[in-house]
Amino acid sequence: MSTRPPTVAVLGATGAVGRELILLLEQRDFPLDRLKLLASPRSAGCRLVFRGEGLTVEAVSGEALAGVDLVLASAGGSISRRWAPVMGAHGALLIDNSSAFRLDPQVPLVVPEVNLATASRHQGVVANPNCTTILLLLALAPLRRLAPLRRVVVSTYQSASGAGAQAMAELETTSRDVLQGRQPRNHVLPHPLAFNLFLHNSPLDRNGYCEEELKMLRESRKILAQPDLRLSATCVRVPVLRAHAEAVNIEFDAPVSVDAARQVLAEAPGVTIIDDWANNRFPMPSDVTGKDPVAVGRIRQDSSHSNGLELWLCGDQIRKGAALNAVQIAEAMVRHGWLKPPSPSPRHPDQDAPVLQP
Q1: Which of 53, 141, 281, 288 fits a disulfide with 114 by CB distance 3.0 to 4.6 angstroms?
Q2: Domain over 7-128+321-352 is classified CATH 3.40.50.720
Q3: 131 flagged as catalytic
Q4: Is 237 annotated as a binding residue?
Q5: Given a cut of 80, is residue 355 above it in pLDDT?
Q6: Is there a binding annotation on residue 14?
């Protein structure tokens, strides 16, 4: 295995998550030999700054991908599916932030604090989970050490950032419209979001759940390796710029005390506790915007049955919900020498895998 730092490409570099990826690579001093910024032909020619140097965004192509060892992609599922074979042909590892490969049984779906070991068994692609799933599992995974999970009911309050940079800009514009007495006009989101909220507009399944809600169920089952996990989600878009919140009800197979849950969460990587009962002060989107940890609070017993807990959490959707999770995966791949697929008969016992600290 070469010790040369990898050449890294960010695909979708001009989007909200792409820009955050670039920022995090710089802030975390990611070990790379060279950074290439890739996007659609429409965005080619833009200049973005990395480590004090202006870099020109290139249109993604086979030529642009030549010589790249690692691709951090956040350009949409169709783009990832189109270019993944080309990346593989060049020997590059794809860490993909779209939904294209998340449920592929051959592709690891990774939250580093939860199931990092699975990333070592990749075949050229590692998938980044949906933002709501990442935030939820940072709390769920440590709690199931206290007792097995039986059922989870979650309601999400999802910021405009989940729909991209243009949706964030539209929220700002329509908020000004409302405040100045004008009729807000939406073009990116299906409804005006300023001073409003609406159920997530992803396609509805025949069972009545939308695609976003089903992602939480299916991805959580895969990441936790618990295919029988019962999870019901209701996803709502709210007029917050870039941090998601979730109200979570958890049923265990046995009673779990609030004190034990609080202690486990306080020690969990990637989690911070904001649980000030005396002042009725619990996590808010403003607490986590631009920050790495997911904030958890209002941890309480479910009064409807003895084996239940309820909690509230907030996390930055662009950061830990997307870009940071991908960069943490990339850091582990470099640190442990996992950039290339393993040999046909690897031994990677999950219980001996390193735990990634935030």
Answers
A1: 141
A2: yes
A3: yes
A4: yes
A5: no
A6: yes
